[in-house]
Design a protein that fits this description.
Blueprint: H1 2-28, H2 35-58, H3 63-77, H4 79-92, H5 96-123
Length: about 120
Amino acid sequence: MRASILIFIGSGLGGVVRHLLNDWITRISATPLPVGILLINISGSLAMGLLAGWFAFKGAAPQDVRLFLTTGVISGYTTFSAFSLDAVLLAERGEVASATAYVAVSVVLSIAAVMMGLAVIKTL
């Protein structure tokens, strides 16, 4: 239960930061492209790599801290970071074909699922 509460709080914090940062970037950018979300996905993936690398190779941290920061804050900030970490871990284990398939299937089916959801709602 303790882990769930830490993840809940961390996810909320990450989500609020994502919203505020995306809002700010959108207001100051002069492009119709979703650069706010792009920068959030990239920075969140960098943060996930830094934290996961630190925890794995440099410093011991209690499981509560790891869950709060990675599964909570960073994944609340961007779930793309968790997706990216999973893909890299598959590749690092030598499962390059699985990593490639995971990335391709995730992107294609996620976009298809959004399209399907939109289509369903449009027919209602």
